[in-house]
C-alpha cells in the first residue's frame, strides 16, 4: 500500500498542506488495502472518513512527500482504532477471580484456556484452576484435562452427568476452598450461534459473576467472527477478545473490524497450536501488517523530530535576542510535555533554575498542560505577542473561551513573565556567546 500511495502523491512533488484532492485519491488506495486485508465494509468507510478529516490541511513536513505523510496519518489512526496500548487480562478482583471463555465451537476456547492458565501460572505466579463446562462433546473435558497435565495446571475433577451450571458452581466452590487466585471456565461452543448456547452462557455468567468474559474468535473467519462478537457482546457483554490463528492470518483485518464494531479491546493473539502460542496484542504491529509497510512511519517520525530541532533553534535565536512571548512559551510547553518534564532547551538554561520548580510543578500533569495550552490558544495573536495588553475584560473572555478561570490565566502570565525576565537577563548579559549561542 505504501508504495502505491507514495506513487500517487509523489507525482505532485510540492510542499504545503494536504488538500482534499490529495487525500481523496490516497483514500481510494487505503480503502482497497483494507478490503484486501479483510476489514468489514462499514468499518472501512468510517475509518477512511476519520483519516480524511484528520489529514486534510495537515502541513507536509519538510523532507517527506505528501504520500508518506498520508501513510503516517493512516497508520496513526489505525493504531488508535486498534487500541493504543496493550490491554492485558485484568485480575484486579477478589480471589478467586473468575474468567469466562466464550465463543463458537472450534474457535480455540479450550486451547486458549490452557494457554492463559499456563501464562498466569508461570509469569503471573498465580494459582489457577481450569474447568470445562462443555457437556456437549464427550471428549471436551478430557481434552482440557490433558492440556492441564501438559501445562501443569489443575483442572476440576470430572463428574459425569452434571449440567454446565452445576459444574460452574462446583468450580467456584472448589476454587474458594482450594485458595486459588484464578478460575478459568471453558464453555461449550456451537458450530453456529443459537439461542440455547446463548442462554447457557448467560446463566453461567449470572452465577459466576466473571471479572473477564473473553470472546475467543478465529481471525480467519473474517466477517463471521465480527458477527459472532457482536452477538455475544449484546447477550453477555464481553470484556475482551482473543483472536486465534493469527499465525495463519497475514492480513490482520479481523482485528480492526472486531475492535471497531464491538469497541472491546483485543487482549491476546493465539499464534499456534502449541501452549506457548499466545501473544499480547500489539496495535503497532498489527497496524503495520495491515498497511504492509514499515519504514515510512519511522521516516516521517524522524523528519518530525528534526523539525522540532529546527523549531528549537529558532526559539533559541529569539531568546538570545531577549524575545520570549506567549507563542514561545506554548512551544516550550509542548516540548516539555513531549520530553516528560524539564528537558530540551529549557533544561539547558542555567538561569531558569529560579522558576524551574514552578514550571515543573505546573507541568506535572497532563490536565494542567492542556489547560495552559488552551488558554494561550484562546488569545489573539496580538495578546500572545504582547501579554501586557491583557486587562480584566480580555482575561474574562479568554477564560470563557478556554474553559478556565481568570486565576489560572494570571498564574500562567506570572510564570511567563518570570521566564521572560530570565531570558532577557541572559540575552543581554551573554550576548552572542550566551548559553544558547551554540544552538542558534
Ligand atoms: P474450541 O472448540 O473453541 O474449544 O477449540 P479448540 O481449543 O479445541 O481448538 C480447535 C483447534 O484449533 C485445535 O486443533 C487447536 O489446536 C487449534 N487452535 C487453537 N488456537 C490456535 C491458534 O492460535 N493457531 C492455530 N494454528 N491453531 C489453533
Ligand atoms: Mg472446547
Automatic annotation (TrEMBL):
SRP54-type proteins GTP-binding domain location: 265-278
Cellular compartments annotated: Cell inner membrane; Cytoplasm
PROSITE patterns, A to Z: SRP54 (PS00300)
GO molecular function: 7S RNA binding; GTP binding; GTPase activity
Membrane topology, record value: Peripheral membrane protein
Entries under SMART domains matching the protein: AAA (SM00382), SRP54 (SM00962), SRP54_N (SM00963)
Annotated catalysed reactions: GTP + H2O = GDP + phosphate + H(+)
GO cellular component: plasma membrane; signal recognition particle
Coiled-coil residue windows: none
Pfam family, one: SRP54_N
Location, primary (coarse class): membrane
UniProt keyword terms in alphabetical order: Cytoplasm, GTP-binding, Hydrolase, Nucleotide-binding, Ribonucleoprotein, RNA-binding, Signal recognition particle
Keyword Disulfide bond: no
GO process annotations (BP): SRP-dependent cotranslational protein targeting to membrane
EC number(s) recorded for this UniProt protein: 3.6.5.4
Residues engaged in binding GTP: 103-110, 186-190, 244-247
Free-text function comment from the UniProt entry: Involved in targeting and insertion of nascent membrane proteins into the cytoplasmic membrane. Binds to the hydrophobic signal sequence of the ribosome-nascent chain (RNC) as it emerges from the ribosomes. The SRP-RNC complex is then targeted to the cytoplasmic membrane where it interacts with the SRP receptor FtsY. Interaction with FtsY leads to the transfer of the RNC complex to the Sec translocase for insertion into the membrane, the hydrolysis of GTP by both Ffh and FtsY, and the dissociation of the SRP-FtsY complex into the individual components.
HAMAP family given in the database record: SRP54
Family listed: Belongs to the GTP-binding SRP family. SRP54 subfamily.
Summary of subunit composition and partner proteins: Part of the signal recognition particle protein translocation system, which is composed of SRP and FtsY. SRP is a ribonucleoprotein composed of Ffh and a 4.5S RNA molecule.
UniProt note: domains: Composed of three domains: the N-terminal N domain, which is responsible for interactions with the ribosome, the central G domain, which binds GTP, and the C-terminal M domain, which binds the RNA and the signal sequence of the RNC.
Full protein name: Signal recognition particle protein
Organism: Azorhizobium caulinodans (strain ATCC 43989 / DSM 5975 / JCM 20966 / LMG 6465 / NBRC 14845 / NCIMB 13405 / ORS 571)
Gene name tied to this protein: ffh
Amino acid at each position: 500500500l505504501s508504495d502505491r500511495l507514495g506513487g500517487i502523491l509523489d507525482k505532485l512533488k510540492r510542499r504545503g498542506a494536504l488538500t482534499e484532492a490529495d487525500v481523496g485519491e490516497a483514500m481510494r488506495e487505503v480503502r482497497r488495502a483494507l478490503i484486501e486485508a479483510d476489514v468489514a465494509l462499514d468499518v472501512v468507510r468510517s475509518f477512511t472518513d476519520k483519516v480524511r478529516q484528520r489529514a486534510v490541511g495537515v502541513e507536509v513536513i519538510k523532507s517527506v512527500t505528501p504520500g508518506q505523510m498520508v501513510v503516517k496519518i493512516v497508520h496513526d489512526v489505525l493504531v488508535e482504532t486498534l487500541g493504543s496500548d496493550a490491554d492485558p487480562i485484568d485480575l484486579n478482583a477478589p480471589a478467586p477471580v473468575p474468567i469466562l471463555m466464550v465463543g463458537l465451537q472450534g474457535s480455540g476456547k479450550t486451547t486458549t484456556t490452557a494457554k492463559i492458565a499456563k501464562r498466569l501460572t508461570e509469569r503471573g505466579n498465580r494459582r489457577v484452576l481450569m474447568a470445562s463446562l462443555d457437556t456437549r462433546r464427550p471428549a471436551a473435558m478430557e481434552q482440557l484435562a490433558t492440556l492441564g497435565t501438559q501445562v501443569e495446571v489443575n483442572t476440576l475433577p470430572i463428574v459425569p452427568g452434571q449440567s454446565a451450571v452445576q459444574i460452574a458452581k462446583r468450580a467456584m466452590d472448589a476454587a474458594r476452598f482450594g485458595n486459588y487466585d484464578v478460575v478459568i471456565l471453558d464453555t461449550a461452543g456451537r458450530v453456529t450461534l443459537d439461542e440455547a448456547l446463548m442462554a447457557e452462557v448467560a446463566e453461567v455468567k449470572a452465577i459466576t459473576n466473571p471479572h473477564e468474559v473473553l470472546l475467543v474468535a478465529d481471525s480467519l473467519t473474517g466477517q463471521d467472527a465480527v458477527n459472532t462478537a457482536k452477538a455475544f457482546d449484546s447477550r453477555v457483554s464481553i470484556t475482551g477478545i482473543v483472536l486465534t490463528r493469527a499465525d495463519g492470518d497475514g492480513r490482520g483485518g479481523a482485528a480492526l473490524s472486531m475492535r471497531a464494531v464491538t469497541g472491546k479491546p483485543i487482549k491476546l493473539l493465539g499464534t499456534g497450536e502449541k501452549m506457548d502460542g499466545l501473544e499480547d496484542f500489539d496495535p503497532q504491529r498489527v497496524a503495520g501488517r495491515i498497511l504492509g509497510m514499515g519504514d515510512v512511519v519511522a521516516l516521517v517520525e524522524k523528519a518530525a523530530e528534526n523539525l522540532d530541532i529546527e523549531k528549537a533553534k529558532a526559539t533559541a535565536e529569539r531568546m538570545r535576542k531577549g524575545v520570549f512571548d506567549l507563542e514561545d512559551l506554548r512551544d516550550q510547553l509542548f516540548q516539555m510535555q513531549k520530553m516528560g518534564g524539564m528537558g530540551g532547551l529549557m533544561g539547558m538554561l542555567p538561569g531558569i533554575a529560579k522558576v524551574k520548580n514552578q514550571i515543573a510543578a505546573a507541568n506535572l500533569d497532563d490536565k494542567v498542560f492542556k489547560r495552559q495550552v488552551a488558554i494561550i490558544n484562546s488569545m489573539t495573536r496580538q495578546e500572545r505577542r504582547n501579554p501586557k495588553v491583557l486587562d480584566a475584560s480580555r482575561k474574562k473572555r479568554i477564560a470563557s473561551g478556554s474553559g478556565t478561570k481568570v486565576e489560572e490565566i494570571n498564574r500562567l502570565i506570572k510564570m511567563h513573565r518570570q521566564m521572560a525576565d530570565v531570558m532577557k537577563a541572559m540575552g543581554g548579559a551573554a550576548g552572542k556567546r550566551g548559553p544558547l549561542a551554540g544552538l542558534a
